[in-house]
């Protein structure tokens, strides 16, 4: 979820048929040898898992449809960017479903909204056991993938959802949540957001307070990935100074190509080696094509991927498209069925299979595994759960 405040816009149906028609013309004009590259992409993704780390379908199910999914037919939706047919067409092997609620709704019980979203993800998986399987670790991920199921994991989008409670953070882990985005577009009392016009309740530019650092270390102990999409650049640096485990950008693009705070600057890309982190590219039009007079396309997304690969390395880039969380999508990447077209373009640009396999999911799975190993190491050190509370001196 990127920009929207309020959920009203969510229910707008996409004119999918029109988009599909426009896109056919677009491809036939722009691709040479398109079919060969696309065949290659499908073959590669049949044998190697594609994992996307950010999809907002749960927000629609829990809040637009009020959690009433029993009579829905997930095979085909005439709204949004995601349904079972299109997930299979896109060769999606694993999906982190986003647990999100608008942080600006400060009167709302964010914990309850998170419970409703987690519940709807689990009920969706239970309704379609032949399609989905919950994955709470890399071993379960591979098990699901080997059995032809879409491995389903969860991330909470926005530190506001734990209400500054270590206890809530730990219980989210128990429920299966495997990453937390430290902020959405609002500051939390302990971390600075990219996109909040209000001053943070601490010195601006600090990034993280001492309590915020404790949260990061508690996430390391639990084995929950620390997601630094949506945070201020200062917070990215503060997290890199603090964490013992690799960092994740679950859905972010390049700041060098599109100079907005929400995107990742090269100065941070250059530090990803310090923790073995990964940036999962967001497809949202204004993040990948910053000239408002130009249409965003698949080629812009490919450019962002190539920029991040050129600065940080091919092993530091993956996919976090933000489908169902963005109200517009680039032409050529209209919905989850289109990932293979992106791979075809990168094949045309000369990407090796090894690098494509990393982009598809290998890089993210390496980071997830390493986060698990750091957690095991901390367990051997017998570090106890944090009892820190917001506002208490250290
Ligand atoms: C769901 O829709 C598909 C076609 O989109 C259809 O084949 C299937 O029978 C439907 N399932 C149910 C339970 O209605
Ligand atoms: C990160 O650490 C470096 C080196 O110690 C320091 O110069 C920088 O200010 C720190 N950044 C933040 C945001 O904490
Ligand atoms: Zn988001």
UniProtKB/TrEMBL annotation:
Q: What is this protein called?
A: Dipeptidase
* Molecular function GO terms recorded: metal ion binding; metallodipeptidase activity
A Gene Ontology biological process in which this protein takes part is: proteolysis
The UniProt entry, under SUPFAM superfamilies, shows: Metallo-dependent hydrolases
Q: Which UniProt keywords apply?
A: Dipeptidase, Hydrolase, Metal-binding, Metalloprotease, Protease, Signal, Zinc
Output the lineage of the source organism.
Answer: Eukaryota, Fungi, Fungi incertae sedis, Mucoromycota, Mucoromycotina
- Catalytic reaction list: an L-aminoacyl-L-amino acid + H2O = 2 an L-alpha-amino acid
Q: Which domain of life is it from?
A: Eukaryota
Asked if the keyword DNA repair belongs to this entry, the reply reads: no
Q: What is the originating organism of this protein?
A: Parasitella parasitica
| Cofactor(s) in the UniProt record | Zn(2+)
Entry's family note = Belongs to the metallo-dependent hydrolases superfamily. Peptidase M19 family.
